Each structure stands twice: as C-alpha cells, then as structure tokens.
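Exercise: predict the structure of this protein bound to prephenic acid.
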Amino acid sequence: MDIKKIGYLGPRATFTAQAVTTLFPEKESKPLVTIPACIDAVVNGEVDVAVVPIENTIEGSVNLTIDYLIHEQPLKIIGEVIIPISQHLMVHPYHSSNWKEIEGVYSHPHAIAQCHKFLYDEFQHTHFEYTTSTAAAAKYISENPHQKFAAIANELAAKEYGLSIVKRDIHDFENNHTRFVVLHKNFVELDHVVKESSGNKTTLMITLPSDRAGALHQVLSAFAWRKLNLSKIESRPMKTGLGNYFFLIDIEQRMDDVLIPSTIAELEALECGVKVLGSYPYFRI
Ligand SMILES: O=C(O)C(=O)C[C@]1(C(=O)O)C=C[C@@H](O)C=C1
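Solution:
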C-alpha cells in the first residue's frame, strides 16, 4: 500500500513526530492539533494514515485514542511503533539562570503524569497547564518569553522552539516507552517502512454477554488452551451504564487461518461480541 501523506499529533517535534520520522523518514507528514483531528483526517481523505499515541509505560493507555476509535471512527490499526521517551524540563533562554523560580509548567497531561514525582518534589507550589502535546507546550513557552513558565518536552522540541533544557530525564521511571499506532481506513499491509519489524500483533475488541458468571474466564480460556499469547488486556467503559465494559486484547501474532478465527467463532458462540481492530507488524526502536 502506497502511503503518501501521514497525519500526526503536532505541532512539529512532538514524540508522535519522532515516531513518524522513525518509521517513515522520507514521507510527507502533516501536523494536526488533536488526536481526534488526526483520526478524522484519515476518514476525510486529507491524509492516508494517522500516527497517534496509544499507551505509555508509566501512565498507561491514551484513553482519547482508544475511545475515539471505538465510539467515533472505526479505523483499522495497520502498524505499531514503540519508541523510548525522555522528558526534559525546558525554559525560554531568558530564564535559564533562574529556572527554579518558574511559576507554571506546561505540557501534555501524559507527560506531566510521567514526571509527577519530580514535579511534586521540585515544584510543589507551581501550577500545571495541560496542552494538546508536549511540543505545543514548548511552542507556547517560546512565544511567551516574559512569563516565568517551563515546558516538559523532548530534545527535538527544545531545538525546534529555541528553548534551554534545564533538567534532563525528569520522567519518574527509567524504562519509559510509548506505543504509537498507524491507522488506516482499511485492513492494508504496511510496506515500504525502513525498519525490520520486531513481531506481529492482532488486536480484538470483545464485549461480554450481560450478567453471565465466569464470562471473562471463558473468554480467556479460549485463548489459553490454544496457547495464544496475549500481550495486553484492558477494559474500558462502554459509556452505556455503570459496569458496562468492553475489553481490548492484543494477541502476539498475526491473524492466521485456524487459531484466531476458531477463537473468534468460540467467543461468538458464547454470545460475546468480537471485532478485529487490526492485525499488523510492530516496530520496537
Ligand atoms: O505530546 C506529545 O509529544 C505526544 O506525542 C503525545 C504523548 C502521549 O499522548 O502520550 C506521546 C508520548 C509521550 O508519552 C507524551 C505525550
């Protein structure tokens, strides 16, 4: 499948932009303001695919991505890229000598959450402002040099927006990675990527029959006795009433002719709803 244009959570120099250049270094890309805008841009044909964050080691799922895909625009996952995340504190060069006196910290909610301990220890009396991305925070700080504010963002953003990094690697846990998904209208093969894939996954959305004792146990058994290795299971609200949840399950292999189709048939026989969200290669950087 020929990808010409990629939409991503912008502005320039977000972590999502890094994910895009890692996987598609030579493709044209378009920064968009929010995750829903990236997904809508694929639906409207403005871009061929979107790359958006879906999960972080420290903070967990990016709920906006999951919910928008499930409830609003059912795009397919055609690939995944996992990149290391280093969060840095940066200020306008005017404030690099007195950065400890900053009065506000701007960043994406996920980035602020990844640095929670650091912020609690160092800036307990500072207020936090959420932005649409880490790079949006860096851009805001560069455009407001007289305010004593800092941004949490990556090295690329510091360069792009002319900020000084005053404290490096402020994320609370060392092993910090984010998974990004590549979304397309259809189930298509992701080819012409520069990296060798690290493996394959299939993602299913499963709903349980209501009020059935042991239903989740039965679902998991269907995978277990076929020795299908699951790399993730997560529940999210259906948004239809308290206690109504769906499950997202990642299987560590591609859709095949036998094992996954027979699991789906077994789950449907148990009156579960099953939807395939994608079967795709992943790339660990
Ligand atoms: O703000 C960015 O730079 C993003 O790409 C978004 C995002 C996220 O939503 O999790 C991506 C990676 C980091 O975990 C922090 C923020």
